[in-house]
Write a structure and sequence with these properties.
The chain is built from 2 helices and 5 strands; from the N terminus they run βαββββα. Helices cover about 25% and strands about 30% of the residues. The chain has one domain. A 5-stranded antiparallel sheet has the order 1-2-3-4-5. The longest helix is centred in the last third of the chain and has 20 residues.
Length: about 100
């Protein structure tokens, strides 16, 4: 199976209406919204990024979200989990 093409777009571009921070991103697999990545503040002032797959993925036993120290790390963690989910789905595993 080839690697999934994931597209990361600023929320201010991909969402209609509202006011979105420049560090808030939606993740797409083609036209399908599959998750979100955004920067959160931590209590100690260290930059922290949240990544999470969309609600449809949260019905599985797989990890569907996490936190990292950089945007690049968040993108990488998102990709790893998304591709693992795709592989399981292709093999007929629902992970419940």
């Amino acid at each position: 199976m080839p690697d999934a093409t994931l597209i990361v777009r600023r929320a201010s571009v991909s969402r209609k209406g509202g006011s979105w921070d420049d560090n808030d991103f939606d993740v797409f697999d083609g036209d399908r919204d599959v998750g979100r990545i955004y920067r959160v503040d931590s209590n100690d002032g260290i930059e922290v990024w949240f990544w999470g797959l969309s609600a449809a993925f949260q019905l599985t036993a797989r990890k569907c979200y996490g936190r990292t120290r950089s945007l690049d790390d968040a993108k990488a963690a998102f990709r790893v989990e998304y591709e693992a989910w795709q592989k399981d789905a292709a093999n007929g595993q629902d992970n419940h």
